[in-house]
Amino acid sequence: MSLGYPVMLHLEGRRCLVVGGGKVAERKTAGLLDAGADVTVVSPRLSGRLSEWSAAGRIRAELRGAEPGDLDGAALVFAATDRPELNRQLAAEARSRGIPVNVADDGEAGDFSVPAVVRRGGLVLAVGTSGAGPAMAAKLAGELERRYGEEYAELVETLGKLRGEIKRAVADPAERRSWLQAAVSDEALALWRTVGRQEEGSGLFVRLRNLKG
Ligand SMILES: C[C@@]1(CC(=O)O)c2cc3[nH]c(cc4nc(cc5[nH]c(cc(n2)[C@H]1CCC(=O)O)[C@@](C)(CC(=O)O)[C@@H]5CCC(=O)O)C(CC(=O)O)=C4CCC(=O)O)c(CCC(=O)O)c3CC(=O)O
Ligand SMILES: NC(=O)C1=CN([C@@H]2O[C@H](COP(=O)(O)OP(=O)(O)OC[C@H]3O[C@@H](n4cnc5c(N)ncnc54)[C@H](O)[C@@H]3O)[C@@H](O)[C@H]2O)C=CC1
Questions:
Q1: 0.80 cut: is pTM over it?
Q2: ipTM
Q3: How many other CB atoms are found less than 10 A from the CB of residue 7?
Q4: pLDDT class for 5, splitting at 50, 70, 90?
Q5: 130 lines ligand 1 (CB under 6 A)
Q6: Which of 19, 113, 140 is the pocket-test mutation for ligand 1 (most atoms within 8 Å of CB)?
Q7: pLDDT digits over 133-189, tens only?
Q8: Would you indicate the residue range of the signal peptide (predicted)?
Q9: Residue 81 beta carbon below 6 angstroms from any ligand 2 atom
Q10: DSSP secondary-structure letter at 98?
Q11: What share of the chain in percent tops pLDDT 70?
């Protein structure tokens, strides 16, 4: 088992290729759309949701079998068909072009696997088991989903505004770090929950100063 190294890829507007149109392809596509990727799905058949996304113009769909040229310009490739030998072939093709590839039926054969994810605006909670148990990853993500509610989207947005202000206002690195740590104390988080939405970064910084005393 290869132990995963987590990263947050910036896929906004990047072309991603999903080969296959079943429930696995659909789940991978949903995650890519959440990240703002430009998704092309190639498959002779599409699931209901993939068809809807295609009709709505949210993805490009090619209703045919995969061809080598499909990989042109792709930043990531997902081999998600029910044909293991085709998935393997796609993986080899992607590798030879230096494009990271995910292989649905054999995690170890790919360059990366996809964790179970909970999104709360900019907050992204991801759980991976390095292939040992995807169902376990989904279960733990379900627990996180219940623990960290929708309110965290706003909380993280507020922290982003405040961090921007602290970076502008405080030049000294050690002092800056101390403010940024104070900004996520339990006391401060409770304050942001009540005043976050209406305040600008500067107003939030004043409140943090008052809190710190
Ligand atoms: C290696 C990896 C590669 C990758 O796909 O990236 C991979 C591989 C395989 N999955 C298989 C089976 C299942 N996968 C799921 C579900 C998910 N699988 C996901 C990720 C990953 N799956 C990567 C590892 C991530 C990690 O280890 O943490 C999740 C987390 C994310 C996502 O897919 O978006 C998503 C849950 C999302 C959510 O619900 O939140 C379920 C449960 C279900 O369907 O309800 C089952 C049935 C139960 C079971 O088998 O455990 C099989 C056997 C196929 C067969 O039997 O033919 C393989 C092939 C192999 O074993 O290598
Ligand atoms: N990684 C994961 O999370 C999981 C992986 N799997 C594995 O992934 C595979 C796919 O699972 P599902 O989506 O449930 O299967 P599915 O049977 O719903 O979908 C397979 C898709 O592949 C397409 N396909 C077949 N030949 C093709 C070709 N030549 N070119 C392009 N597309 C082609 C089909 O049209 C279909 O849309 C399974 O065989 C299984 O081994 C299964 C469950 C979870």
A1: yes
A2: 0.97
A3: 8
A4: very high
A5: yes
A6: 113
A7: 999 999 999 999 999 999 999 999 999 999 999 999 999 999 999 999 999 999 999
A8: none
A9: yes
A10: T
A11: 100
The helix/strand/coil state of 200 is: coil
DSSP annotation string for 83-136: -HHHHHHHHHHHHHHT--EEETT-GGGSS----EEEEETTEEEEE--TTS-HHH
Atom number, ligand 2, closest to the C-alpha of residue 27? 3
The answer to whether 166 and 181 have CB atoms below 8 angstroms apart is no
Asked whether 41 lines ligand 2 (CB < 6 A), one says: no
- The per-type count for the chain, helices as H runs and strands as E runs, is 8, 7
Which of 100, 122, 103 lies closest to 35 in space, CA to CA? 122
Fold of domain 115-149: Double Stranded RNA Binding Domain (3.30.160)
Q: Which residue has the tokens 């929950």?
A: 193
Give me the CATH topology for the region 1-114. Answer: Rossmann fold (3.40.50)
Cβ pair 81, 70 in contact under 8 A:
no
* Two structure tokens written together for 160: 């982003």
Q: Where are the domains of the chain?
A: 1-114, 115-149, 151-212
Note the ligand closest to the C-alpha atom of 19. Answer: 2
Q: What is the DSSP letter of 72?
A: T
What are phi and psi for residue 76, nearest 5 degrees? -140, 150
